[in-house]
Amino acid sequence: MMNIGILCTNDDGYRSKGLAASVKAALSVVGEEGKVMVCAPYSQQSACGTKTTFGKPLEYIEIEVAGVPGYAVKGTPSDAIRLVIGGLRIRPKLVISGINHGVQIGVLPVFISGTCGAAITAAGAYGVPALAIGYATNDLSLIFGEHDGSSPLDLSQYPGKQLEKIIQMAFYVGMGGAHFWNINFPEEPTDKIVFTDMVKHGFFDERVFLGEGEFCNIGTKRDAEFPKGTDAYHLRNGEITITPCVLRLTSPELIHALETEFKNFK
């Protein structure tokens, strides 16, 4: 197993300026000697969660992003993580997924997000801590469209420079026991960072039926008030939010309790 410093990936595709911004931020923190690597989807993979290629070979090509070599997979963000760690046997100290065009706010959006899907795969399946990063934008062409590097939106200054501070803490200090951080930047530049809880429902109402046999799983914006202390509340308040997330699917305590209950069950 070969060790490197940071692996950068995303769900918008390897030509996204958000990925280039995260690569530059990673380089500024660990330097070239810190061994930054890129492996990202070849094309747009938003809202694919932890979907993975199964039953056929995963194709990949060599690429370069912001001067850093790596690979583009003809698959999903989770595929990118699996290729590097499981296939190529390269283990990073930290995975950075993003910067995504669009935010991951609320429990359901986190599980749907391809950006978070990469972080969940890295942290949950391989034990590598990860950062999942979203940037608030209302431009649907950036959220769901293909990226070819021609977008006028430059994320290397903001949120790129603020991301550097977050990477420094995660890489050199640690993540406080969290398996991954879900990080979201408001559209307007700020340097205020808050650690938050995760709201149950995100910014969108899921129950929108377009007509008979048609259901929209994005919905319309919710005008509801969000509880103070949650990611939705503070992002709407113009602050950078970091939600520490844990991936513990079971526990010895739960196993012991159920074994006892089962023995006593009549």
Note down, in words, how this protein is organized.
31% of the residues lie in helices and 25% in strands. The chain is an alpha/beta fold and 266 residues long. The protein has a single domain (2-264), classed as Stationary-phase Survival Protein Sure Homolog, Chain: A. The strands form 2 sheets. It has a 9-stranded mixed sheet with strand order 3-4-2-1-5-6-7-11-8, with helices on both faces. A two-stranded antiparallel sheet has the order 9-10. A hairpin with a 2-residue loop joins strand 9 (208-211) and strand 10 (214-216). Helix 1 (17-30) crosses helix 6 (160-173) and helix 2 runs parallel beside helix 4 (114-126). The longest helix is centred in the N-terminal third of the chain and has 14 residues, at 17-30. The chain is globular.
Q: What would the CATH topology be?
A: Stationary-phase Survival Protein Sure Homolog, Chain: A
* Overall mean pLDDT: 90
> Would you tell me the structural class of the helices and strands?
alpha/beta
Classified in CATH, the superfamily is Survival protein SurE-like phosphatase/nucleotidase
The sequence of SSEs as H and E is: EHEEEHEHHEHHEEEEHEH
What fraction, in percent, of the residue positions are helical? Answer: 25-40%
CATH architecture: 3-Layer(aba) Sandwich
- Overall radius of gyration: 19 Å
* Major pleated sheet: 9 strands, mixed
- Rounded to the nearest angstrom, the distance between the terminal CA atoms is 51 Å
Strand content: 15-25%
How many H/I helical runs?
Answer: 8
Task: List the domain count as a whole number.
Answer: 1
Q: Which term fits the overall shape? A: globular
Counted beta strands = 11
| Unreliable residue stretches | none
